[in-house]
Amino acid sequence: MERIQLTDDLSFSRFIHGSWRLADWQYSTKKTLDLIEHAMDRGITTFDHADIYGGYTCETLFGDALNEKPSLRYQMELVTKCGIVLPSEQRPKHYNTTKPHIIASVEQSLRNLRTDYIDLLLIHRPDPFMDPHETADAFVRLKETGKVRHFGVSNFKDHQWRMLESHMTFPLVTNQLELSAYHLENFEDGTLNLCQEKRIAPMAWSPLAGGSIFNGTDEKAIRLRQTLQEVGHEIGADRIDEVLYAWLIRHPAQIMPIIGSSKKERIDAAVKSLDLSLNHDQWFAILQSSMGHSVP
Ligand SMILES: NC(=O)c1ccc[n+]([C@@H]2O[C@H](COP(=O)([O-])OP(=O)(O)OC[C@H]3O[C@@H](n4cnc5c(N)ncnc54)[C@H](OP(=O)(O)O)[C@@H]3O)[C@@H](O)[C@H]2O)c1
């Protein structure tokens, strides 16, 4: 599989597998390991996590599977996130991007994932209470101690990216964004343009709109499904998820879609989309179908 070079010493597989829903699947450790190996056999070596996924349980489920075959760790890249604190009896949901919180969160992620380093740490969401100097200082500390190799953000708009990066001594390497043919906001508001300006490849979360595109009954979902079927027929796709992935891959920003599926055949469909090619008109047909009108 094609690889995307994020820095001189870090590359990701073009497709990434995500663990947000891992706890919902109720997989045994063996079945989780089997899915990880299935993805890796197809060249998907990058795995996306967050401290909070599954109510703080998904990293451990993945780490338990990895513990069955520790040698896999050195053939994969692990991404995790921090900064969101889920509600508890004591405190409401909030964000925390202070140095002590970031460092404690990473140390817990290392224990959960049964590893001694994270390849990429992301701040999960922009924090209106962020002290960027302190956040950047936490990154320096984690880099110096070898616990995290590189840093990025998720869901940051242009100004939030620039603010944090202006306090850093090394560059942010990616922005993980909601990007799909169904959700166009980041295509339209300059967020993706900043990635292109900075020459950084974005990671795309919910590339299939969280699955809602397959059964959504709203006008947009129905319209988009129809167009995806038509374009899919033209390009020889077997299913519309292949077309959704091909649409993202075709964009010049080197988007890295994160597959959220629990099923091997759906991982295979993502990989197959790399062989499909949309022409200019087909790309715009899907865009306009999602917009519900022609470009001006
Ligand atoms: N940074 C952030 O704020 C953020 C937010 C959300 C997610 N993420 C990351 O992005 C990853 C992917 O997000 P996602 O899970 O929403 O991705 P997605 O690929 O858009 O959605 C996956 C969901 O769609 C379902 N699905 C896939 N193909 C289908 C089909 N043909 N028919 C019906 N349902 C289908 C899957 O069910 P099956 O399991 O049955 O295939 C799964 O429940 C997450 O795991 C996480 O790592 C990040």
Automatic annotation (TrEMBL):
Q: Which residues form the NADP-dependent oxidoreductase domain?
A: 16-286
Q: A GO CC term?
A: cytosol
Which CDD domains does this entry report, sorted A to Z? AKR_BsYcsN_EcYdhF-like
Report a single Gene Ontology molecular function: oxidoreductase activity
Sorted UniProt keywords:
NADP, Oxidoreductase
Which top-level group of life is the source organism from? Bacteria
Indicate whether NADP appears among the record's keywords. yes
Pfam families attached to this UniProt entry: Aldo_ket_red
Leader sequence segment: none
- Keyword Ribosomal protein appears in the UniProt entry: no
| PANTHER family, A to Z | NADH-SPECIFIC METHYLGLYOXAL REDUCTASE-RELATED (PTHR43364), OXIDOREDUCTASE YDHF (PTHR43364:SF1)
Protein family according to the UniProt entry: Belongs to the aldo/keto reductase family. Aldo/keto reductase 2 subfamily.
State the name under which the record lists this protein. Answer: Oxidoreductase
